[in-house]
From TrEMBL:
Organism of provenance: Nocardioides agariphilus
Superkingdom of origin organism: Bacteria
Domain ABC transporter: 8-256
Pfam families in alphabetical order: ABC_tran, BCA_ABC_TP_C
One Gene Ontology term from the biological process aspect of the record: D-alanine transmembrane transport
Gene Ontology molecular-function annotations: ATP binding; ATP hydrolysis activity; L-isoleucine transmembrane transporter activity; L-phenylalanine transmembrane transporter activity; L-valine transmembrane transporter activity
Full protein name: ATP-binding cassette domain-containing protein
A single cellular component GO annotation: plasma membrane
Entry's transmembrane regions: none
Keywords from the UniProt entry: ATP-binding, Nucleotide-binding, Transport
Length: 260
């Protein structure tokens, strides 16, 4: 497959939580190989719900309808680990980590989980786990070598996000879904995350990225395209410049963010 080809297609996606609340309504989007798409919009717009539905993470929480295709194959009925094997990798707004485990053990866990799905994997996480060359590259890229054997409970929020990103990248996803990778960070840390993303893209030119992000500096630096969500719907889709100039977007979203 070459650049420009569609790697992810979402058609008419609805997410209705068990409470009856509809968080996503009729969202369709297409992601091309090597494309970096930002998803922006006010709090509660449905951005995380969209990404969670793409990954299959809402199976017990919500009814999800519509079609989802990864490289043309429908995955709407596939479990999350099957979608992961087909190339989806995600990180969370608040890093999903096990506080008592070391950074190295997180990588071991990620490797086992992608081989088998969940199950009895925890028993297999051993401290003598050795990094493959590809995993070592990711660790060095994210600057995590010095904390490899530390329990993640000893790390700050910024590093936790990097640990989660490392575990996700080690699965070599084709489509990386980043849920607010700079949430809670200062401008310097956010800049570091942008540099990391740029380096990942340089190393893995075929990677496609969906990035949920409130920080417009990050959006402008990382994304080639942006969609804007409001009350579960996509209200704009274009280059970051296009959406910033859109009057409806300015009124509904950007107007509330100083400096945007
Ligand atoms: N498990 C749930 N049950 C019921 N409603 C939910 C659930 N999870 C999220 N919601 C609601 O769905 C709506 C969309 O939430 P979502 O987290 O997808 O928005 P978001 O755009 O990612 O917001 P933010 O920028 O604050 O992260 C919100 O009104 C939220 O309260």
């Amino acid at each position: 497959m070459t650049a420009g080809e569609e790697v992810l297609a979402v058609s008419d996606l609805d997410v209705r939580y068990r409470s009856g609340f509809q968080a996503v309504s009729g969202v369709s989007l297409s992601l091309a190989r090597n494309e970096r798409l930002a998803v922006i919009g006010p709090n509660g717009a449905g951005k995380t719900s969209l990404v969670s539905a793409i990954c299959g993470d809402l199976r017990r929480k919500a009814s999800v309808t519509g079609d989802l295709r990864i490289e043309g194959r429908s995955v709407a009925r596939r479990r999350p680990h099957v979608r992961a094997r087909m190339g989806l990798g995600r990180t969370y707004q608040v890093a999903q980590v096990f506080p008592g485990m070391t950074v190295l053990e997180h990588l071991a866990l990620a490797r086992i989980a992608r081989r088998r799905g969940v199950g009895r994997w925890l028993r297999e996480v051993k401290s003598e786990f050795e990094l493959t060359d590809a995993e070592a590259k990711v660790i060095d890229l994210l600057g995590l070598r010095k904390v490899l054997t530390q329990r993640v409970s000893q790390l700050g929020q910024g590093d936790l996000k990097l640990v989660e990103l490392a575990a996700t990248l080690c699965a070599e996803p084709q489509i990386l879904l980043l849920d607010e990778p700079t949430a809670g960070m200062g401008s310097r840390e956010a800049e570091n995350v942008c540099e990391v993303i740029e380096t990942i893209v340089a190393l893995r030119p075929s990677l496609s990225i969906i990035l949920i992000e409130h920080n417009m500096d990050v959006v402008f630096r990382v994304a080639q395209r942006a969609i804007v969500m409001h009350q579960g719907r996509v209200i704009a889709d274009g280059t970051p410049d296009d959406v910033r100039a859109d009057s409806e977007v300015r009124a509904l979203y950007l107007g509330y963010h100083a400096g945007a």
